Amino acid sequence: MSAARPERHRPAVEQLHVGNDTAAPAAEPVQAPAADIRRKRPPFSSYLDPDLQKEFKIRCVVLDIEMQDGLAGAIREWLERHPAP
Asked: Where exactly are the structural domains of the chain?
């Protein structure tokens, strides 16, 4: 017999302030990749301003997405906006 999985608690978005803004859900939720794709992701590291990293982490929690999925989406958007010459 397995224990029931507890419901995930969602933060009160209207009460969560990040910097001068209030966090809000994205227009379209980011879809998490399939488990087999996740296993194939190589490690990636970088150095970020601590405040930027904290804001990003909070926003991912509010939107209920993993940081790696949010980062992948941000990089895809950047690549689309900055095509190679």
From this structure: 13-81
